Amino acid sequence: xxxxxxxxxxxxxxxxxxxxxxxxxxxxxxxxxxxxxxxxxxxxxxxxxxxxxxxxxxxxxxxxxxxxxxxxxxxxxxxxxxxxxxxxxxxxxxxxxxxxxxxxxxxxxxxxxxxxxxxxxxxxxxxxxxxxxxxxxxxxxxxxxxxxxxxxxxxxxxxxxxxxxxxxxxxxxxxxxxxxxxxxxxxxxxxxxxxxxxxxxxxxxxxxxxxxxxxxxxxxxxxxxxxxxxxxxxxxxxxxxxxxxxxxxxxxxxxxxxxxxxxxxxxxxxxxxxxxxxxxxxxxxxxxxxxxxxxxxxxxxxxxxxxxxxxxxxxxxxxxxxxxxxxxxxxxxxxxxxxxxxxxxxxxxxxxxxxxxxxxxxxxxxxxxxxxxxxx
Length: 376
Ligand SMILES: Cc1cc2nc3c(=O)[nH]c(=O)nc-3n(C[C@H](O)[C@H](O)[C@H](O)COP(=O)(O)OP(=O)(O)OC[C@H]3O[C@@H](n4cnc5c(N)ncnc54)[C@H](O)[C@@H]3O)c2cc1C
Prior knowledge:
Layout: E1 8-13, H1 17-28, E2 34-40, E3 44-46, H2 51-55, E4 65-67, H3 68-74, E5 77-81, E6 84-88, E7 93-96, E8 102-103, E9 106-109, E10 114-115, H4 123-126, E11 128-129, H5 133-149, E12 155-160, H6 164-177, E13 184-190, H7 201-213, E14 217-220, E15 224-228, E16 231-234, E17 239-241, E18 244-247, E19 251-252, H8 255-259, E20 270-272, E21 284-286, E22 291-293, H9 302-307, H10 309-321, E23 336-339, E24 345-349, E25 352-356, H11 357-371
Parallel strand pairs: 1-2, 1-9, 2-5, 9-21, 11-18, 12-13, 12-18, 13-14, 20-22
Antiparallel strand pairs: 3-4, 6-7, 7-8, 10-19, 15-16, 16-17, 23-24, 24-25
Helix pairs in contact: 1-3, 1-10
Residues 14-18, 39-42, 45, 48-49, 51-52, 83-84, 110-112, 130-132, 165, 168-169, 248, 288-290, 300-303, 305 line the site of flavin-adenine dinucleotide.
């Protein structure tokens, strides 16, 4: 058994919102006898709250991204840029794409989620998922560049997924594109008969009307069956020729999580208890989209990843100190602020909704304050 004076090796896998907060907290409250490592497949971590407005051109790349190597350095953690491709829970190692396996005593996982492209034929090859964000942004910048170069050429952009992410992207993309061209047709496909089915009635109706006013063509109750290099085809037979397709459907987890032997929920997300600790492997912690808190199902939203930062920090430190862990309970109702790309925002709180430029100013203040904690 490890003596208390021996050094504890904690590896943070993924530089998501929760880990950014944990590292920031660790910088302020460091512990002796711990070695910290951050493993991330990107040096620049995007902040989801500001990403749609970056797409609209309201924030720069730097304003919306956290510099992870710098953040790690401030917390006296090593930084490795590589992609985890597996977990060996027997040997307590992370298997990496390029590096040798990375050993740990405790691992904390905050790798987010990606829209599921594997469920529809051709989506993996021909659609651009909204995550990983670096890949999404590369395609978005390329498309913007093409529009800027030849603004009079008619083009069609499709977004598949009518949840909060898809709707917010549609509004923000529309605002950005209209600055350069009136020749880009935007189409939004939603499998269900309504947009944002988990939000209140007012929000659903309001966003429906707003998208139509902005010229976005809505295809409600249309499930995309196949994506081809230049076309999407729906189960109904509807087909649309496209120049680019963005994929913003249900969140999914990488399959190596389940293959590692970690207990997961039915969608492959890591099942954690009220301490954000794996229910099957106590030396594994998880937070953000990749975690599913047993008995408290919640939507995959950045607001939870942010809220879980401090409880995760507390419990990782308590693990090192050999103290009992403290429970965390995710809030049942949460405020969604949806930016509409024109310096205005919509608030959604349970059944209530409100749309105003004042909400944008408030959201802008909250987001800037959040990002001001981190190096860019
Ligand atoms: C288009 C869109 C708009 C959204 N807008 C909002 C919004 O306005 N408000 C809101 O609350 N939520 C929003 N969301 C949801 C939000 O993005 C997520 O809930 C949030 O980012 C989850 O944070 P996280 O910490 O779990 O992971 P993430 O922020 O996704 O971070 C995970 C990190 O881990 C890294 N990583 C992933 N896999 C590996 C690996 N194998 N090895 C190493 N590193 C890895 C990634 O590069 C990434 O940096 C939006 C989602 C989408 C798709």
